[in-house]
Amino acid sequence: MEFAELIKTPRADKVVLHRPFHLAVEGTLCLTGHHLIFSSRRQDNAEELWLLHSNIDSIEKRFVGSLGTIVIRCKDLRIIQLDIPGMEECLNIASSIEVLEDGWSSFLLEQEFELLSSVTNEWRLSCVNKEFSVCPSYPPLAIVPKSIDDEALRKVALFRHGGRFPVLSYYHKKNGMAMMRSSQPLTGTNGRRCKEDEKLINATLRSGRRGFVIDTRPLTVAQQARAKGGGFEQEVHYPQWRRIHKYIERFNILQESFIKLVEACNDQSHNMDRWLSKLEASNWLTHIKELLTAACLAAQCIDREGASVLVHGSEGTDSTLQVTSLAQIILDPRCRTIRGFEALVVREWLQAGHPFQQRCAQSAYSNSKQKWEAPVFLIFLECVWQIHRQFPCSFEFNEHFLILLLEHAYASQFGTFLGNNESERAKLKLPQKTMSLWSWVNRPEELSRFQNPLYEANSLVIWPSVAPQSLQLWEGVFLRWNRPSKFLEEAEEERINIIKYNKELQAKVNALRRQLAEMETDGEMQEAGP
Amino acid sequence: VEQVKLLDRFSTSNKSLTGTLYLTATHLLFIDSSQRETWILHHHIAAVEKLPLTTSGCPLVIQCKNFRIVHFVVPRERDCHDIYNSLLQLSRTAKYEELYAFSYNPKQNESEQVKGWQLIDLAEEYKRMGVPNDYWQLSDANRDYKICETYPRELYVPRTASKPIIVGSSKFRSKGRFPVLSYYHKNKEAAICRCSQPLSGFSARCLEDEHMLQAISKANPSNRYMYVMDTRPKLNAMANRAAGKGYENEDNYSNIRFQFVGIENIHVMRSSLQKLLEVSGTRGLSVNDFLSGLENSGWLRHIKSVLDAAVFLAKAIAVESASVLVHCSDGWDRTSQVCSLGALLLDSYYRTIKGFMVLIEKDWISFGHKFSDRCCQLDGDPKEISPVFTQFLESVWNLTEQFPQAFEYNEAFLLQIHEHVHSCQFGNFLGNCQKEREELKLKEKTYSLWPFLLAEQKKYQNPLYNPDFSPELTLLEPNTVSFNFKFWRNMYHQFDRSMHPRQSMFNLIMNTSEQNKQLEEDIKELEAKIKQRNGRSDVVLVKEQERTAHPAPVALKSSPCFQKEQPPMPVNDAVRAIEGSNTADNRYSELVSEFSKAEPAVVSLEYGVARMTC
Fold this sequence. Notes:
Structural class of chain A: alpha+beta
Largest interface: A-B, 83 and 84 residues
Shape of chain A: globular
Distance between the termini of chain B: 21 Å
Oligomer: heterodimer
Largest sheet of chain A: 7 strands, antiparallel
Shape of chain B: globular
Helix content of chain B: 40-55%
Low-confidence stretches of chain B: 539-587, 589-614
């Protein structure tokens, strides 16, 4: 994958460069694979500006007549302005620069935090994990309550499985409630406690209010975990928290379920009874329903009960992430946009340390049944699809986008899903050695394939139905290769055409109206004239 | 009765709507505090049940034939008892003349009424198929219903079948239903014929019947052999032999290929639906209970077997050019299903709105599917009730899912037909056969459903329909692998709003395509206006007068933006607005008993029953 392929207009003449405290210079602009080059091309003292694409922080387009202006803000805080004659050229250059964004730095926690700090100052960005020393599966940065210092965080990390101390996963702007995630507390059989841990999670509560701990294990499993040093938050030490055990299946059970489902889907000879009983025996849709229910429960606690929530299972790298990310899909309209969803995947899956390398090493046809293989991410995507089916106009992306992510999680020419966590990715130097999936996907021509023509931003919380009658097999994945899909695709195309046509017509009607109105006023002026 | 509560059947929280219940001569009406009305036609009521008294009152559960279930709580037991008794009486009509259709008056004059009945003309339909022709002719044998009471007067038979052969054959067939033409495929010159089972017993034979079948196969010049499809399971057919009935012996008939296809009988279908409804009506259903319930009910298996049979039939005709004779026991249930679905696969005409009406009129109404008995229009034998027609509609729905562009009509059309098969509001589906309908003078006393559906056909159009989807008379080949058959949520949970997607892509597309048409017209109109203006701009003087004749532009001018006239897409917005997206609907909260905060109750029942009745 070369950046150079993405350049639409490699060169533009008669461009005027404005810089603060410099005279405006006219010259030629060139785009190369790595640089934006401006040259005044004057014989006497040729001036040249070389700007690395990776230095570009943001760009802004403006138009006055056919003259376009691009304002480029750089990461070294420099601001330059380019006036480009020709609307089309300007647009091309702007979009070329835009797509040359580096996906590796598209979704940084710093940006997330910036957004957060514009609505609340109760949180801070902590670098306690800078060397991955406190928690190897966390990213270097984490958002934690402001009142908790790094020293306390180190102590809390020792009290949580794998050092995964509670961090902010989602902040509900509507009522200021927070969703946090972590791993299980290491209470062990003798009921260890950690004052800092209690303080940390209590810091998210409003005075007098209670919070909910959603444990994704059944109580018995959580109790058994104590024998191995794990455990759960005990009421005595967390009096303000109510614990809910909402069981979500994990690892090999999911993998088996996955294998059974695929097997059932691949056998065309099944009669109806056998098909239905195999579908049932796979338990797949049960897992989907359970997960959706858990996510809705978390969302309900936050939005309806106005309570903060802490989600964890045992390690906090699988079911925990499923719940927190799905709850955000339900609560946060931003996560239903393409960029927002990408940010969600980066934040809640990649940076949060879901071990993609282990989970997605093999799929449903694997013979080696390794216990760490599991379709955890697939189940998350399927749940998103189920919600998408119930709210087809509320998502900016379409089904293909989900399938794309699924494909790349299992096999990809991009580095995004490689490795098990950020620390591994840093060690492998993936950002330097590989391309990010996002750099490719976010180019306008690719993006258009993944856009949902029905999308209309919906700022509401979307509560899906979890009744078995409302859930369906994800045919786009499981029956993708074993049924003729020509007619369905054609119908989909027709749908898109209808929407497109509608937009064209509306534009035309508006233009005609304008024309007519102009003629009206002209006529009037003429009339007034004589 | 006042202060009645309407409970939502799937909600865990005991939220309810309080309102007033009215009983009219034809409807049960519930008006809630926000003035929303729920109309339930008495004829739609399948069962009324009074549950044991509770603290809040006396619960009354009403099950409808359109799969609506309403749960009222009446504060006083006496009231409840009265309602219960009245409903029992009102929903059980003893005589046809008491049915709603005889009192229903849609404000049509007589000529409109007559025209309405003439809308679907079967003689025209046979002409469209290409009969009469060299091989097939109209027989007047049943002109006075003398040979077969349950057949229509006009029947098409092979030219070579003389009257004695017809009479002889009819005597050898159960209920006199001898083999007649149901569909003629003009390209392949092959025919779908239908009849009832032969009275063959263990060894009886009938030369006239054998001649009749031979005449049918000879009427097909392109293929010598014909198929005889017995749509029953083999075991059932064998059992029938003991009662002097049975199936064709291949040795006695020349050039036939005999085939069982194994669709179960009406009793199996009835209990299958019963089981299906029990499962889908369970509160707090788990996925596995649902799937195993679906499996145990066998419902989808039955749908598949019906569609499989239709595919077999259609292939015999389209691929082998062979004629097919279809029968079951009496030839009015499974035979109707298979013949009509087969024709639907073969002929794209039946995939249009009008064509579908013709198909129902032909294979179901005229050939004597016992609508009255099967849908329990009158208080009768409960063993005669069976969802045979519902299965037909469901099979069609499955086809529309596989071929989204092949059908002119949409799901709402199928649901509306289902609604009216049971509503007894129109005359079409009353009675069991044509003779009975004539005796009831339905054409004078009642109205036909079809013109009403046609008048609002916008609602029933499939926006994705592509008339060129398949060339005329080419076979639609559905994939009948099990995983293609789905639970028809919109049929069985039509009235359970919480289960439906909160945003309907289908409605959106439909409205958009509707709006497109409107916009196209707007453009034409605007272009015309502009042209007019251009023409006029030379003649400035005339303009003043003209403008007074066109007040619209003045309005435009006064508004600063030009959008004033633009349709603000009210329909679209309504579709997109997410109302009733509510946690309490969705039973996530079983674990959290303390979530007792009252949710704003959102149960909306305005959709449905009363659409055509008011």
